[in-house]
Amino acid sequence: MRYKTIGCILASAIPAVVAFPSFAQEGLEEIVVTATRREENLQQVPISIVAVTGESLQMRGLDSLERVSQAIPNMVVTGGGGGITQTNFTVRGIPNVGTYVDGVWQVGSAGLLTQEFVDLDRIEVLRGPQGTTFGRDSTGGAIRIWTKKPTSEYSAEVTGTVGTLDRRDAQFIVNLPVTDKLLTKFTAASLYRDGFVNDLTTGKNNGGLDEKVYRGDILWTPTDNLTWRFIYSSDNNSFTEPRIQDAVFPGTFAQAGAAVGVIDLYAAAGAAPYTALTQTAGYPGGQVGEWQNRSEIVTPDNINTRQFSSDVSWNLSQSMKLEFITAQTTQEARQIVDYDNSQYNLVTDVVNSRQRLMSQEIQLSGGRDRVKWVGGLYYWNQSFRQRISRYQMEEFGDAALGLAPQLDINAAFANPICTSVQTSPLLNCQQVYASAIGGGGRYDTLNLTDTDGWAAFGEATVSLTDTIDLTIGLRHHDQNQTLQPLVVVPGYTGPKAQNPNLLFQGNVLGGSSVGQTPTPSSFDKNTSKLSLQKQFNKDVMGYIAYSEGFNSGGATAYVDPSTGIRNISSYKPQTLKNTEIGVRSDLANKHLRLNATLFNTIWDDIQAAGPVLDAQGHQLPNLLTTNVGAARARGAELEMTIVPTDKFLVNLNLGYLDTAYTSILPGTLFLDTSTAFAQAPKHTGSLGFQYNANLAKGAQLITRVDYLYQSQFWRSLAFLRTSFWTAVPAGFDESGGSGIVNLRMTYEPPNANWNLAVFGTNLTDERLINSGFFHGIWGFDFATVGRPREAGVQMNFKFK
Length: 800
Prior knowledge:
Elements: E1 32-33, E2 40-41, E3 49-53, H1 54-59, H2 65-69, E4 75-80, E5 83-91, E6 97-101, E7 104-105, E8 120-127, E9 141-147, E10 155-163, E11 167-175, E12 182-193, E13 197-199, E14 205-206, E15 209-223, E16 226-239, E17 243-248, H3 252-255, H4 262-268, H5 276-279, E18 292-293, E19 301-317, E20 320-338, E21 347-368, E22 371-392, H6 409-414, H7 416-419, H8 429-436, E23 444-463, E24 468-486, E25 519-537, E26 540-551, E27 554-560, E28 565-571, E29 574-587, E30 592-604, E31 607-613, E32 619-627, E33 629-642, E34 648-664, E35 683-694, E36 700-710, H9 722-725, E37 738-748, E38 754-761, E39 769-775, E40 780-785, E41 790-799
Parallel strand pairs: 6-9, 13-18
Antiparallel strand pairs: 1-2, 3-8, 4-5, 6-7, 8-9, 10-11, 10-41, 11-12, 12-15, 13-14, 15-16, 16-19, 17-40, 19-20, 20-21, 21-22, 22-23, 23-24, 24-25, 25-26, 26-29, 27-28, 29-30, 30-33, 31-32, 33-34, 34-35, 35-36, 36-37, 37-38, 38-41, 39-40
């Protein structure tokens, strides 16, 4: 018997093991991937690729993209500055990673961090720029997620999971072939977990998950040369963010030479102390435990994503294929960002948004013998409507909303904490906060961004000799964008709710453009790719490759509280130039798979969020995207699989990353060439062991244990780090720096239609910081955390 399951181990050396058949002399099987938009043996593709099957994801306890990133060298997936509703992807320290589901670029990243995987076929991670083979610009890399296709047999599958934190998951899959040419599949899943961060203010647990997934899949093959796949999917994800207060430094902003912080103003008004002892989670001798907070927010975030896609594949001949991919995606989201994460309403944003995308991609591929090629055209039309409603220092009252004051602002202004801060040329305490507790600080903004564009892309591979191939790729990107400020219209737009826990009523995203000037922007760019590969023998291939990436520019808007004026700022595109050398090898009679890559990336016109200054030149609690300079990233990746016996498998994945800013544009604040990259751990790695024990009468017990590691990395740019404002105290947590252990044991009885698994994730119970930032104006470090130690039992039934 061939070792078919281990044959599904992809370039990442991550095993695709559910059953664990015996291993014969043939060794590891050939792996077929479609990363170059055609089927190829992965060991002969000159790209740095990592791929993981759905079965392997389950076996390793990688049930979301956040956890997958912990197993992929030089890849990080975290939440954003506002929390885990947002999702940031970086590959080799570079952001702007394109995400695709069943070949469709995803218009929004909201929810991708926390969404649970349901009936996946595989995930492919492509490192480096990928524009010459994909429709949308994917500068840092591409993540391709594929769901399982309908099958030609009537079948049903039911999976139930129970576990700690009141986990209750149910998944139902039904394959219903109508004819041998018309196949259908229907998937439904309900995923529930209770929260794990106890709220001392509300008594509730934050971090809970309640997700509903529905998917309909039709695969029609009217002829041997024509295939048409229709997919409709709906994902409704509701959760409360697992916020913790990671650090409190009262007066930090004042110490930096500007003005008193928000915390100090509350203290000046006679409020209960807001200190590390009363707020910081796990502070030695403090009042808040490691998995506790004091947030007043009880309303969950909600993300509803609906997508329809049509994929038509037509084999025009034995050597040529035409493919049409059409998609329509809508994502509606509501997020509550409780920055202070306390019993007070110091700074809270309610963000309502709606994104829509229509895309059309046409691909033509072909070739034979010495020449193979693929080319395509991609068109997209995208709209993004976002309303940000800020609640700030509500305890001082808000006449516009009819809120009576709980704290006296005049008492705060008269307190020495405020009166002592009047050093010219700085504003005094009264001047700083007069607008913060008025209309300027408590703003309600609405913006509409419309984007449309097209791209032409293609690659051709020419076999120069029997063992040497040359690949040339080109891409042209053309995009137009308009940022249109909208006016919130009383009586038409749903009014701002009295507090962030209340849902907005009426037409939440309605507004008028009357009197508002749109900001147009247009960008176009040509990028290229070149690679040369050498097949040294049937088991060893080496390559050298050069590729370019491009991300369009745009515009951002903010309100200056000192004037109440909305300001708009444009930024230009950023570009990447990546060079890498790699080797792909199957050694020891195919008992050892060893893949290694060295890379060097030059990053120009970097787009990054930066501080905003008001009309008087003082920093505001807002972020503005600008171009900041240039940088480089270099490093190495190693993926290894060893199968020493017919029952034992070992995986080792390692990543090394060295990043640095090489130049900073004049006028860029709080950034220099000594600044460390954000979301770029220097060391990443994973080590896994899997053993299959043959039991009596043909039963099997499969045991898998994994250790996953990311070294410490900063979540944000320098001015949003504690180290920028003050000396980092001992014991302060940042992202990474810890290893986690996952374990799974699966029992498969002989000749049965079911299996039983017990599992544990994050068995070391590490508290992993996965979003947020520190801001000196506020004097506290807003953060969210990943899931703690969990254990569960899962049963799977299959019916045919």
